[in-house]
């Protein structure tokens, strides 16, 4: 793995309401979520970035109201047609 060092304000822990020992994991999680939302990484890769198990990461996304599945409307219409629905 590659290690990335960041310089952050001294009061960031206070601003985020997290203890100093959790700051790195909070930043990694935020980065993973952003990259996932932008479609730049898969759910599995985002979980890896956040150092989380994939299903735990997906559950945390769901708690935040972030969808973990996206469907193309054309795929949904095709599935309905195949199933004989309107």
UniProtKB/TrEMBL annotation:
Belongs to the UPF0175 family. This is Uncharacterized protein. InterPro entries: UPF0175 (IPR005368), UPF0175_domain (IPR052264).
